Amino acid sequence: MKKFGILIGIVLVCLCFSSFLVNADIETKKISLNGSTSMEKMINALKEGMDDQYPELLIEPQFTGSSAGIEAVFSGTAQIGNSSRYLKDTEKEKGLIENIVAIDAIVIVTDKHNQVNNLTTQQLIDIYKGKIRNWKEVGGQDLPIVVIGRESGSGTRSAFEEILELEEQCQYANEVNESGPIIAKAQSIPGAIGYVSLDVVDESVKTLAINGVKANETTIQNGQYSLQRPFVMATQGEISKQNEEVQKLFQFIASEDGQKIIRAVGLVPTTNEMSY
Protein backbone atom coordinates (compact mmCIF):
# COMPACT_ATOMS: atom_id res chain seq x y z
CA MET A 1 0.00 0.00 0.00
CA LYS A 2 2.87 2.31 0.90
CA LYS A 3 4.60 1.51 -2.39
CA PHE A 4 1.38 2.30 -4.25
CA GLY A 5 1.21 5.68 -2.54
CA ILE A 6 4.80 6.41 -3.48
CA LEU A 7 4.07 5.45 -7.09
CA ILE A 8 1.09 7.79 -7.21
CA GLY A 9 3.25 10.58 -5.80
CA ILE A 10 5.89 10.02 -8.49
CA VAL A 11 3.24 10.09 -11.21
CA LEU A 12 1.81 13.37 -9.88
CA VAL A 13 5.26 14.94 -9.73
CA CYS A 14 5.91 13.88 -13.31
CA LEU A 15 2.59 15.31 -14.45
CA CYS A 16 3.30 18.62 -12.71
CA PHE A 17 6.77 18.76 -14.26
CA SER A 18 5.33 17.96 -17.69
CA SER A 19 2.73 20.70 -17.23
CA PHE A 20 5.46 23.13 -16.24
CA LEU A 21 7.41 22.33 -19.42
CA VAL A 22 4.30 22.85 -21.58
CA ASN A 23 3.57 26.18 -19.89
CA ALA A 24 7.19 27.24 -20.26
CA ASP A 25 6.96 26.50 -23.98
CA ILE A 26 3.73 28.54 -24.23
CA GLU A 27 5.29 31.53 -22.53
CA THR A 28 8.08 31.74 -25.10
CA LYS A 29 5.58 32.84 -27.78
CA LYS A 30 5.09 36.47 -26.84
CA ILE A 31 3.56 39.49 -28.52
CA SER A 32 4.72 42.84 -27.21
CA LEU A 33 2.48 45.90 -27.50
CA ASN A 34 2.93 49.42 -26.24
CA GLY A 35 1.02 52.66 -26.58
CA SER A 36 -2.29 54.40 -26.06
CA THR A 37 -3.84 54.36 -22.59
CA SER A 38 -7.23 54.87 -24.28
CA MET A 39 -6.86 51.45 -25.93
CA GLU A 40 -6.20 49.62 -22.65
CA LYS A 41 -9.74 48.33 -22.18
CA MET A 42 -9.91 46.98 -25.76
CA ILE A 43 -6.45 45.39 -25.69
CA ASN A 44 -7.07 43.67 -22.35
CA ALA A 45 -10.44 42.38 -23.57
CA LEU A 46 -8.85 40.98 -26.74
CA LYS A 47 -6.08 39.41 -24.66
CA GLU A 48 -8.61 37.65 -22.47
CA GLY A 49 -10.66 36.55 -25.47
CA MET A 50 -7.65 34.97 -27.18
CA ASP A 51 -6.69 32.74 -24.25
CA ASP A 52 -8.93 29.82 -25.28
CA GLN A 53 -8.23 29.98 -29.00
CA TYR A 54 -4.47 30.63 -28.80
CA PRO A 55 -3.23 29.34 -25.41
CA GLU A 56 0.33 29.29 -26.76
CA LEU A 57 0.41 33.09 -27.05
CA LEU A 58 1.32 35.49 -24.30
CA ILE A 59 0.26 39.07 -25.02
CA GLU A 60 2.36 41.58 -23.10
CA PRO A 61 0.84 45.08 -23.37
CA GLN A 62 2.12 48.32 -21.89
CA PHE A 63 0.15 51.55 -21.88
CA THR A 64 2.49 54.54 -21.98
CA GLY A 65 0.78 56.78 -24.57
CA SER A 66 0.42 56.76 -28.36
CA SER A 67 3.68 58.53 -29.20
CA ALA A 68 5.63 56.32 -26.81
CA GLY A 69 4.12 53.21 -28.39
CA ILE A 70 5.09 54.31 -31.87
CA GLU A 71 8.65 55.03 -30.71
CA ALA A 72 8.74 51.56 -29.12
CA VAL A 73 8.09 49.98 -32.52
CA PHE A 74 10.82 52.07 -34.11
CA SER A 75 13.28 51.09 -31.38
CA GLY A 76 12.32 47.41 -31.58
CA THR A 77 11.09 47.15 -27.99
CA ALA A 78 7.51 46.48 -29.14
CA GLN A 79 6.09 44.61 -32.12
CA ILE A 80 2.89 46.65 -32.18
CA GLY A 81 2.41 50.33 -31.37
CA ASN A 82 -1.09 51.20 -30.17
CA SER A 83 -2.09 54.69 -31.27
CA SER A 84 -5.38 56.50 -30.70
CA ARG A 85 -4.61 58.90 -33.54
CA TYR A 86 -3.80 58.61 -37.23
CA LEU A 87 -0.12 58.11 -38.00
CA LYS A 88 1.85 61.10 -39.11
CA ASP A 89 3.33 61.19 -42.62
CA THR A 90 6.82 61.19 -41.11
CA GLU A 91 5.99 57.96 -39.22
CA LYS A 92 4.65 56.30 -42.36
CA GLU A 93 7.73 57.36 -44.30
CA LYS A 94 9.80 55.33 -41.84
CA GLY A 95 7.86 52.17 -42.74
CA LEU A 96 5.15 52.19 -40.09
CA ILE A 97 1.83 50.72 -41.27
CA GLU A 98 -1.47 52.14 -40.01
CA ASN A 99 -3.68 49.15 -39.15
CA ILE A 100 -7.01 50.61 -38.04
CA VAL A 101 -8.87 48.03 -35.95
CA ALA A 102 -11.66 50.16 -34.47
CA ILE A 103 -13.21 53.60 -34.46
CA ASP A 104 -13.66 55.39 -31.15
CA ALA A 105 -15.66 58.45 -30.23
CA ILE A 106 -14.18 61.22 -28.11
CA VAL A 107 -16.94 62.08 -25.68
CA ILE A 108 -17.36 65.36 -23.82
CA VAL A 109 -18.06 64.80 -20.12
CA THR A 110 -19.22 67.08 -17.29
CA ASP A 111 -20.60 66.62 -13.79
CA LYS A 112 -24.08 65.11 -13.59
CA HIS A 113 -25.65 68.29 -12.21
CA ASN A 114 -24.71 70.36 -15.26
CA GLN A 115 -27.84 71.78 -16.90
CA VAL A 116 -26.31 71.84 -20.40
CA ASN A 117 -27.11 68.84 -22.62
CA ASN A 118 -25.68 69.93 -25.95
CA LEU A 119 -22.87 72.05 -27.38
CA THR A 120 -22.27 73.17 -30.94
CA THR A 121 -18.84 72.52 -32.39
CA GLN A 122 -18.07 76.24 -32.23
CA GLN A 123 -19.13 76.49 -28.60
CA LEU A 124 -16.83 73.58 -27.73
CA ILE A 125 -13.95 75.23 -29.58
CA ASP A 126 -14.56 78.52 -27.81
CA ILE A 127 -14.66 76.81 -24.41
CA TYR A 128 -11.29 75.17 -24.98
CA LYS A 129 -9.82 78.39 -26.38
CA GLY A 130 -10.95 80.23 -23.26
CA LYS A 131 -13.39 82.48 -25.11
CA ILE A 132 -16.37 81.01 -23.27
CA ARG A 133 -15.64 80.82 -19.54
CA ASN A 134 -19.04 80.40 -17.89
CA TRP A 135 -21.77 77.81 -18.44
CA LYS A 136 -24.43 80.55 -18.55
CA GLU A 137 -22.98 81.59 -21.92
CA VAL A 138 -24.15 78.28 -23.41
CA GLY A 139 -27.51 78.03 -21.64
CA GLY A 140 -26.39 76.62 -18.30
CA GLN A 141 -26.14 77.90 -14.74
CA ASP A 142 -23.91 80.77 -13.63
CA LEU A 143 -20.81 78.66 -13.00
CA PRO A 144 -17.19 79.00 -14.16
CA ILE A 145 -16.04 76.37 -16.68
CA VAL A 146 -13.05 74.31 -15.54
CA VAL A 147 -11.31 73.02 -18.68
CA ILE A 148 -9.60 69.62 -18.29
CA GLY A 149 -7.51 67.80 -20.90
CA ARG A 150 -4.89 65.16 -21.46
CA GLU A 151 -1.13 65.63 -21.31
CA SER A 152 1.03 66.59 -24.29
CA GLY A 153 1.78 63.44 -26.32
CA SER A 154 -1.57 61.82 -25.56
CA GLY A 155 -3.29 60.34 -28.61
CA THR A 156 -6.66 61.43 -27.27
CA ARG A 157 -5.49 65.01 -26.91
CA SER A 158 -3.86 65.00 -30.36
CA ALA A 159 -7.02 63.64 -31.99
CA PHE A 160 -9.31 66.05 -30.11
CA GLU A 161 -7.22 69.09 -31.00
CA GLU A 162 -6.70 68.02 -34.62
CA ILE A 163 -10.40 67.36 -35.23
CA LEU A 164 -11.31 70.81 -33.88
CA GLU A 165 -8.17 72.50 -35.28
CA LEU A 166 -7.14 73.53 -31.77
CA GLU A 167 -3.44 72.59 -31.78
CA GLU A 168 -1.47 74.77 -29.34
CA GLN A 169 -4.60 76.86 -28.59
CA CYS A 170 -6.29 75.11 -25.67
CA GLN A 171 -6.45 76.87 -22.32
CA TYR A 172 -6.31 73.97 -19.87
CA ALA A 173 -6.89 74.43 -16.15
CA ASN A 174 -5.78 70.83 -15.57
CA GLU A 175 -3.78 68.34 -17.65
CA VAL A 176 -3.77 64.67 -16.61
CA ASN A 177 -1.94 61.57 -17.81
CA GLU A 178 -4.85 59.12 -18.09
CA SER A 179 -8.56 58.99 -18.88
CA GLY A 180 -9.53 57.87 -15.37
CA PRO A 181 -8.54 61.14 -13.68
CA ILE A 182 -10.56 63.11 -16.25
CA ILE A 183 -13.66 61.12 -15.31
CA ALA A 184 -12.88 61.66 -11.62
CA LYS A 185 -12.40 65.42 -12.03
CA ALA A 186 -15.50 65.82 -14.22
CA GLN A 187 -17.48 63.99 -11.57
CA SER A 188 -16.17 65.87 -8.56
CA ILE A 189 -15.46 69.44 -9.76
CA PRO A 190 -18.58 71.58 -10.35
CA GLY A 191 -18.34 73.19 -13.78
CA ALA A 192 -15.64 70.84 -15.07
CA ILE A 193 -15.51 69.73 -18.70
CA GLY A 194 -13.25 67.07 -20.19
CA TYR A 195 -12.86 64.66 -23.09
CA VAL A 196 -12.42 60.88 -22.94
CA SER A 197 -12.78 57.78 -25.05
CA LEU A 198 -16.36 56.47 -25.32
CA ASP A 199 -15.42 53.08 -23.88
CA VAL A 200 -14.31 54.52 -20.52
CA VAL A 201 -17.46 56.56 -19.88
CA ASP A 202 -19.50 55.43 -16.88
CA GLU A 203 -22.61 56.60 -15.03
CA SER A 204 -20.64 58.89 -12.71
CA VAL A 205 -20.52 61.64 -15.36
CA LYS A 206 -22.83 63.31 -17.87
CA THR A 207 -22.06 63.16 -21.59
CA LEU A 208 -22.92 66.05 -23.90
CA ALA A 209 -24.30 65.83 -27.42
CA ILE A 210 -22.38 67.70 -30.12
CA ASN A 211 -24.57 69.56 -32.62
CA GLY A 212 -27.52 67.59 -31.23
CA VAL A 213 -25.89 64.19 -31.85
CA LYS A 214 -24.98 61.70 -29.11
CA ALA A 215 -22.14 59.23 -29.61
CA ASN A 216 -23.20 55.63 -30.30
CA GLU A 217 -22.32 52.89 -32.82
CA THR A 218 -24.83 54.13 -35.39
CA THR A 219 -23.83 57.80 -35.27
CA ILE A 220 -20.14 56.87 -35.33
CA GLN A 221 -20.52 54.52 -38.31
CA ASN A 222 -22.58 56.96 -40.37
CA GLY A 223 -20.33 59.89 -39.48
CA GLN A 224 -23.03 61.97 -37.79
CA TYR A 225 -21.01 62.17 -34.60
CA SER A 226 -18.05 64.35 -35.53
CA LEU A 227 -15.62 63.73 -32.66
CA GLN A 228 -14.27 60.35 -33.66
CA ARG A 229 -10.80 58.92 -34.12
CA PRO A 230 -9.14 55.62 -35.09
CA PHE A 231 -7.65 52.98 -32.85
CA VAL A 232 -4.48 52.00 -34.69
CA MET A 233 -2.28 48.96 -34.07
CA ALA A 234 0.83 50.05 -35.98
CA THR A 235 3.42 47.60 -37.27
CA GLN A 236 6.81 48.01 -38.91
CA GLY A 237 5.79 46.73 -42.33
CA GLU A 238 2.54 45.06 -43.38
CA ILE A 239 0.78 42.44 -41.26
CA SER A 240 1.61 39.72 -43.79
CA LYS A 241 5.31 40.35 -43.13
CA GLN A 242 5.03 40.01 -39.34
CA ASN A 243 5.84 36.84 -37.44
CA GLU A 244 3.24 34.10 -36.98
CA GLU A 245 2.24 35.22 -33.49
CA VAL A 246 1.45 38.80 -34.54
CA GLN A 247 -0.49 37.55 -37.56
CA LYS A 248 -2.60 35.34 -35.28
CA LEU A 249 -3.47 38.36 -33.16
CA PHE A 250 -4.72 40.31 -36.16
CA GLN A 251 -6.59 37.24 -37.46
CA PHE A 252 -8.39 37.00 -34.13
CA ILE A 253 -9.30 40.70 -34.26
CA ALA A 254 -10.80 40.17 -37.73
CA SER A 255 -12.73 37.08 -36.60
CA GLU A 256 -16.36 37.09 -35.44
CA ASP A 257 -15.22 36.68 -31.83
CA GLY A 258 -12.80 39.59 -32.14
CA GLN A 259 -15.46 41.84 -33.64
CA LYS A 260 -17.85 40.99 -30.81
CA ILE A 261 -15.23 41.95 -28.24
CA ILE A 262 -14.55 45.30 -29.92
CA ARG A 263 -18.28 46.07 -29.94
CA ALA A 264 -18.65 44.90 -26.35
CA VAL A 265 -16.18 47.53 -25.12
CA GLY A 266 -18.09 50.30 -26.89
CA LEU A 267 -16.11 50.62 -30.11
CA VAL A 268 -16.91 50.24 -33.81
CA PRO A 269 -14.76 47.58 -35.58
CA THR A 270 -13.20 48.33 -38.97
CA THR A 271 -11.25 45.32 -40.27
CA ASN A 272 -11.27 46.68 -43.82
CA GLU A 273 -8.46 49.06 -42.90
CA MET A 274 -5.93 46.33 -41.96
CA SER A 275 -3.03 45.61 -44.30
CA TYR A 276 -3.12 41.83 -44.82
Automatic annotation (TrEMBL):
Transmembrane segments: none annotated. Gene3D superfamilies: Periplasmic binding protein-like II. It is a lipid-anchor. Residues 1-24 form the signal peptide. The keyword DNA damage does not apply. It comes from the Bacteria. Keywords: Cell membrane, Lipoprotein, Membrane, Palmitate, Phosphate transport, Signal, Transport. It is found in: Cell membrane. Its main location: membrane. CDD domains: PBP2_phosphate_like_1. Residues 30-256 form the PBP domain. NCBIfam families: ptsS_2. The complex is composed of two ATP-binding proteins (PstB), two transmembrane proteins (PstC and PstA) and a solute-binding protein (PstS). Involved in the system for phosphate transport across the cytoplasmic membrane. Part of the ABC transporter complex PstSACB involved in phosphate import. Belongs to the PstS family. This is Phosphate-binding protein.
